[in-house]
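Let's practice the habit of predicting before peeking. Look at the sequence and jot down your guess about where helices and strands might fall. Then scroll down.
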Amino acid sequence: MSVEFIFRLVGMVVFAIMGAYAGLYLAAILKGPVDMYTLLLGLVGALAGLVLTPFLTTRPARTLRGLLGRISVQTLVAGLIGLIAGLIIAALLAFPLSLLPEPFRSILPFFGVLLFSYFGVAVFVMRQNDIFSMMRLNLPGRQSSSEDSQPPRDAGRTILLDTSVIIDGRIADIARTGFLVGTLLIPRFVLNELQYIADSADGLRRQRGRRGMEVLSQLQKDPTIPVRISDIDVEGVREVDDKLVILARQLRCPILTNDYNLNRVAELQGVAILNVNELANAVKSVLLPGETLLVNIIQEGKEIGQGVGYLDDGTMVVVEDGRDHLNSKATVMVTKVLQTAAGRMIFARLGREE
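Done guessing? Here is the structure:
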């Protein structure tokens, strides 16, 4: 039995009693049959309670819980401190305001509480990064160091992680380099999908899921990488990719992924994407026609006489007339560099053999 159903029953009883009392009152005014008015308005109240109770109780509570789940802990603490500061200022001003003539002595203290509470929360939330940075720098007994002078890594930024990028595994190495500035946020539904893959009957999918779990464990154990797992969810949406896009729009944060389809869908909806594959292609070495390099030719190419080798970063090198140099290293000269959706491909011809 769900909580909403229980609230519906309680609301139905409460509204039915209220309707019955309203029927008694109406019957007394109109001098009509008491039983009929009581029964009729009692049934109307029961129906109204059955329908309206969730919109007055569980639905607002669920919306408030989702809103609070999307707000960071730092923002909540800053808002609470601002509220306390505003209430203290309002309390200090309540006595002099109460000395004013009527009606100001009755109205102004109440408006002062509302006004200073609002400004306290607004100011502290707006300047939360500066306030917490000042508090960290002024802690007693804290010695200054070169690390203290640096700004915090997260800088208030959040990065959503997709299931595919966790399974990929490269995220751990990228995060350790310090290029990802912000807190890595893993929603609970992404973790559930990762667990579902790890429990799959397919051996390959199960292995990929377990590798993702290991990568996530490495990220959590590294103190230099801020990682947060949140119970935040998107109501009314089942697909994980759709939830990530909606969540990224609500939080105004990018999605870290290597999923091509998610990349395109997110771009169409104006969501920023950090694509690991694009990053990998961007950091590959730049080679120009005429440069020479050493390649280990390991297999035949599609065309007659071609050989294929790979650089250390995985870039494919197609060597003209390289078939006769299989399983050996050869010095080749670059003739053309082709950028494809799958990555960078280099065409070369043989130079002098090593």
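How did you do? The longest strand covers residues 328-340.
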